[in-house]
Structure formats: C-alpha cells, structure tokens
Amino acid sequence: MQALVIAAHGSHLSAGSATPTFDHADTIRESGAFDEVRECFWKEEPSFREVLRTVESDEVYVVPLFISEGYFTEQVIPRELRLEEWDVDQWDSDGTSATHTTVTATDTDQTVHYCGPVGTHDAMSDVIVQRADSVTGDRSVDDGEFGLAVVGHGTERNENSAKAIEYHADRIREQGRFGEVEALFMDEDPEVDDVTDYFSTEDVVVVPLFIADGYHTQEDIPEDMGLTDDYRKGWDTPTEVDGHRIWYSGAVGTEPLMADVVLERAADAGADVGDAIERVRRETSSAGPAAGD
Question: Which Pfam families match (predicted)?
C-alpha cells in the first residue's frame, strides 16, 4: 500500500486557508492513484506531528504544499514527522532543485519519501500560465499582448523565497507566450506596488505565487497595486491603473491544476500513480477558474 500526505501551512485566522489543500487532496483521492490520501497542517488539524499515525500504509509520500525551500520544508516538517535521518543536504539542492529523499519515520517505522515543495517543481510554471489564462476569460494570453507579473512575498531572511519566483518567471519568459514577464515582490525590490513601472504592455496579468488566498493576496496586494483603496469594497477585473489594465488572479494555489503538481512530485519520488497525472491534468485544465474567483 502507498499513501500520499499533503503538508500545508493552514491558518488560525483565515477560515479558507486550508480549502485549496482539501480541494487538491480530493482531486487526487478521486483519481485512485493512492490507497490513502491525508492532509495535515502547521496551524490547523490534523497536525504534522500526528498525521503519520493516521496512515496505515507502510510507504508514504510526503509532498509539502509550500512555495519555496526554507524553514518549513527543511526544518519544521521533517522535525514534526520525526524524520530523524533527514538532513537538508540529502536534497542536494541549489534552492530550487529539491526532488526527494527517502528516510524512515522514527516512531512509526514507515518508509517516507520526502519530496521537495510544489512551488519549485517545473510543472508549477504551467499552473501559473493557466491561472493567468483563466482570469482573462475569452482573451488568450498567448498572443504576446499581455504582460505577466509573478508575485512572491520575498524576504531578506531566506533567499530561496525569491529564487522560486524568479525561477518560474524565467521559465515562462523563455516560452515566449507573454510580451513581458517580471518577478515582483511584496517585501523586496522590485516591488509589486510599482507594477506598472515594469511593463510597456497595456494588459498585465498579476499572479501571486501563494498557496491560498488570505491577508496578503486579498488585502495587501490589491491595495498596494492601486486596484482599490479599501479591499473590503472589492475591485474590478480588469482595473485600469496608470494607463494599464491589471488582471489580478488571486493565489495560484487555488488553481485546480495544482493537483497535478502534487502528483508529479510524488511520481518523481517513485510513487506508482498510473495514468493519474494525465487524467488530472486533462480534467483540471478544462475546469476553468477556481471557485470563488
């Protein structure tokens, strides 16, 4: 038997923070790729610490639903799962290239394939593009007339936070689907507050590389960009700002295609998922905008 555990942050303050995790878990559960699928959280129940004891399978694939390699993926999750054999050097990563390592959970004796975060997987670039396409409706982003801003939190405390954003911006730029592609940040330069300064295209799609919609994506970023002077009043899509039309998508993690990235992470670690990746990609690619958009 093989099980999948999706590890996410969760929130005590935002009731909808865990919704994308449950949605993607349900999609994967319905695919039949795993005998068991479990969700666990840092700030909600079930917790990281207890989740392995809810799993009957001897072989477990753990996929962190996080954007970057850093404190949570390198320290918190392995510690809480009691992966005492774990060492970050086992990932042999430059900050965006972690794949997986296999260790034994100390107290349950399960074989755990601990995967890199979804946010640095190559397939995340496809999710960002689909997210951009879904918010523009009938207007395709493939004509080169749209600019794309991939937005991250950014922090001087962890350089990998910015690396993940820049990595996907570079990959999407190379595809040539957008007229311009820029990586922007909330807490470091170049800042999303000045989004229109970085684009000559009239239309700009802004996709925040966050797992769930919350304070940053629904309050900070819309106000910082000038979409609204009060997030509680909402904003139009698109909104004209400084002569540009800004198409704001909300968190990329709410895009249904994210379930495909989770599956691909597990498959890269050796999980037998059959044709689930192809089926989930096909189904979620035609699912349209995520609920609540």
Answer: CbiX
